[in-house]
Specification:
Elements: E1 3-7, H1 13-22, E2 26-30, H2 34-42, E3 46-47, H3 51-54, E4 60-63, H4 68-78, E5 87-90, H5 96-108, E6 112-115, E7 118-119, H6 121-127, E8 130-135, H7 138-148, E9 152-159, H8 163-192, H9 196-203, H10 211-214, H11 238-255, H12 260-277, H13 285-292
Parallel strand pairs: 1-2, 1-4, 2-3, 4-5, 5-6, 8-9
Antiparallel strand pairs: 7-8
Helix pairs in contact: 4-5, 8-11, 8-12, 8-13, 11-12
The chain binds nicotinamide-adenine-dinucleotide.
């Protein structure tokens, strides 16, 4: 079992660190927020006074932070305090450029590094069912595997530095676009007098089939476990979808790719967020689509 430093104990990082403790690792945790540190202590982690103190004696360092600037700031602080050859893994969702810079910082100090953003949300973090999309050298991925396996059920090595982040934002761009497409189809069906169930029964077994429809249906009824049946409680909040679609647009602009539907999806989610619905599950975008009819 490894000595693991875990930095960033929020909605995702808290339960992920707890699962590492449950798997038998010695976890030393740090977060800026006292309540998160207290919860990690209750979950069995040792608590460090600072992020730098948390990495003392660590074989592996994991970060789970809001955005690229936080990851670069923490990695800049902790890497000089890590023993040579230590593995550092970032599980946050951040921009590809910052992820590459973070890998470069690690390489300069002789550390192994992996970008490993996740899908599966807070339920996946608690239930050890996350998917990790990993970028980094083969040797670093091989070292990260046994640790990540204690926090999730599926690992994909997507390529070199930043490839995990690239995979994450491309996947979530598909999801953002397809959820709007499914919402539009139901909104049109309502106007045409077609029942939700009839559209679902046809599209779920026809060429309109997709995850947004069959696993996360944005109207109540056809998929009982979808947030639509629970007042659109997240799930995956719309403001996080805005974040991921913005990362996709930034990456597209930097790489010279043109993603017109990704751009439009970002605009629609931003409008939904600006109307005060940022905390609503992203499948609630159907409400925004319906509201456009009256304008
Ligand atoms: P969160 O805001 O709940 O947690 C982030 C934590 O980082 C906070 O507790 C904060 O205090 C801490 N932090 C910030 N700066 C720090 C620093 N310098 N040192 C130590 N701690 C610091 O966010 P979250 O929901 O846990 O998400 C974390 C990451 O995972 C984000 O990048 C998010 O986009 C991604 N993600 C979230 C979900 C989700 O459903 N919540 C799903 C997939 C991916």
């Amino acid at each position: 079992m490894a000595n693991i430093a875990f930095i960033g104990l929020g909605n995702m990082g808290g339960p992920m660190a707890a699962n590492l403790v449950k798997a038998g690792h010695k976890v030393t945790a740090f977060d800026l927020v006292a309540a998160s540190r207290d919860q990690a202590k209750a979950d069995g982690a040792a608590i460090a006074e600072t992020s730098v103190a948390s990495v003392k004696g660590a074989d592996v360092v994991v970060t789970m932070l809001p955005a690229g600037k936080h990851v670069l700031s923490v990695w800049n602080e902790v890497i000089p305090a890590m023993a040579k050859g230590t593995l550092i893994i970032d599980c946050s969702t951040i921009d590809v450029e910052s992820a590459k810079q973070a890998h470069a910082l690690a390489a300069k100090s002789g550390a192994l590094s992996v970008d490993a953003p996740v899908s599966g949300g807070t339920g996946g973090a608690k239930g050890v069912t996350l998917t990790f999309m990993c970028g980094g050298e083969e040797k670093a991925f091989a070292a990260a595997k046994p640790v990540l396996e204690n926090m999730g059920k599926k690992l994909v090595h997507c390529g070199g530095a930043g490839a995990g982040q690239a995979a994450k934002i491309c996947n979530n761009m598909i999801l953002g676009i397809s959820m709007i497409g499914v919402g539009e189809a139901f909104a049109l069906a309502e106007k045409l007098g077609l029942s939700h169930q009839a559209l679902f029964d046809v599209a779920s077994t026809s060429s309109g089939q997709c995850w947004a429809l069959t696993s996360y249906c944005p109207v109540p009824g056809p998929v009982p476990a979808s947030p639509a049946n629970n007042g659109y409680k997240p799930g995956f909040a719309s403001n996080l979808m805005v974040k991921d679609l913005t990362l996709a647009q930034d990456a597209a602009n930097a790489a010279g790719a043109v993603t017109p539907l990704g751009k439009h999806a970002q605009e629609l989610y931003k409008a939904f967020d600006a109307a005060g619905h940022g905390g609503v599950d992203f499948s609630g975008i159907i409400q925004h689509v319906r509201s456009l009819a009256g304008k």
